[in-house]
Amino acid sequence: MFLPFFHPKTYSGALANFETGRASNLRSRMSLVANRVNSGTVLRTCPACIKSDAKMVGRAWWHVQHQLPSCLVCLKHSEPLLEVAVQRRALILPSQINLQHNEVLMNLDVQLTRLAHDVWRSRTSLPAYQHITSRYRHRLVETGFASHIGAIRQDKLRHALRAYWATSASPAVQQLLLDSSYPEALFRAKRAQFHPLKHLLLIGLLWGSWTGFCGHTPCECVTPKRASANVLSEGETDADILYLLQQGKSLRAVSKQCKRSVIYVKKLALQNNIPVKTRAKRIFGADIALIVGLLKDGVKTQQIAREVDCSVGAVEQVLSQHPGLVEKRDQKRFNAQCHKHQNCILKALVERPEYYRSDFQRECRASYSWLFKHDKEWLYSVMHDAVPRSRRRGGP
Questions:
Q1: Which pLDDT score, from 0 to 100, does residue 237 have?
Q2: Less CB within 10 Å around the terminal CB: N or C of the chain?
Q3: 324: part of which helix (H) or strand (E)?
Q4: Where are the domains of the chain?
């Protein structure tokens, strides 16, 4: 069941550990601990299977298909499975379990059980490991959970998953739905291994069955090229970076999109003779005088960089060479904030001359708090005197 959703090297390594008897670190290698999905703590069996096994061979046994993650129903007899806690030092037989149960079958539990069985018994060719999330992205675009460029609407998808599986009787499912990082982590952590249950819940919502997932082909409006225009797939390579650079995207845009540093992206561009537009890092002569004048006027460094066509770092370097400018710019920004908040209080005074201090604090909270902290003397000078204590609680 883990084969379709695990990297081939991880899966083959787990099998090798089983063969050699070194399974002590198996749970951590398969990320079962990190995924926080409780499994292997109970054994499940079907009452009808117990009776059938005893009639056919004289003894009941534990069926493997009943132990699959979140398997709550026997698909052969359509009955809820009975659970018993695993005991490390005691041998438990299915015949020792009380066969009485009052549970009611839910369609969602039957669907989840069938999904687990289909994955376990699948004989069809499975998608390659790196293409699973790409298939998810195509389907999310078709169903409206992602934009046409592949940007996933994570909140909408999370709420839809919780609403779809809300009535499931599986404790593992309910615990997983409360995880705030699910299902976002499926698309963010590209090198991580995830428990099959996390994939099955998403497949159940988007396709309803395992055969629908395996046989899915994206519609014409969602092509792999278009879906990866702004969101790269699992197989991000240097070729993807070069493709975006050839489309005219800037170094910083490609760096942010591909999760690589600007230096690395620039190195690839230079190695492949792709022209990139770089901004001046050093400035001379008249440009320095122009920048100093703009800095004295209080213009933001980003705006100066755009006007002079240089980097923000170059502007900040000029600013660092004039320490007095830094203090003047700080004072200028402080005065601008002070005038803005003072005008807010004065405007309120004109409109509401009967207001007391508590009224201003309630109606103009931001301006009142800022002036109370930085210019309390002016604030109290323009307001009415405080209400006498004898009149604060309904006194005469």
A1: 53
A2: C
A3: helix 323-351
A4: 3-121, 129-225, 238-270, 286-321, 341-391
